[in-house]
Amino acid sequence: MNNNIKYRGGEMERSVSDFGSSGSEEEMMGIRKGPWTEEEDAILANHISFHGEGHWNSLARSAGLKRTGKSCRLRWLNYLRPGVRRGNITLQEQLLILNLHSRWGNRWSKSFQGGQTMR
Question: Where are the residues of the annotated region Disordered (predicted)?
Fold first, then answer.
């Protein structure tokens, strides 16, 4: 019998030792952390080009990636998606931000609601 199980208010509570002493829950599930490889990037991009974006948790599993859905979504949106522009903003974009900030103060970014960002 496992002595590490406690009952509180009719619910069972387990201690960490119930799950073994080796690593975190992600490690136990085989979830990979750390930098993405080129192979993983290619798998993700190919899967999205064929099946489309969305349902990130099931996408990660069906693509065969050992990553979380959140990790796949962030990798796609911030690095792999076509049209993602990284680097410095243009002078025109900087002037637009200054103009909006002078009109709206710190609420200037509300004019870009709906997931739209400056590109």
Answer: 1-31
- The partner residues of 8 in beta bridges, in order of sequence, read 11
Identify which of 4, 9, 81, 7 has the alpha carbon closest to the alpha carbon of residue 41: 81
Question: Rounded to two decimals, what is the model's pTM?
Answer: 0.57
Architecture of the domain defined by 35-110? Orthogonal Bundle (1.10)
Nearest to 90 by CA among 102, 78, 98: 98
> Which residues of the chain are under the pLDDT cut of 70?
1-28, 108-109, 111-119
**Span 43-61, pLDDT tens digits:** 999 999 999 998 999 999 9
Residue 95 sits at φ, ψ, to 5 deg, of: -65, -40
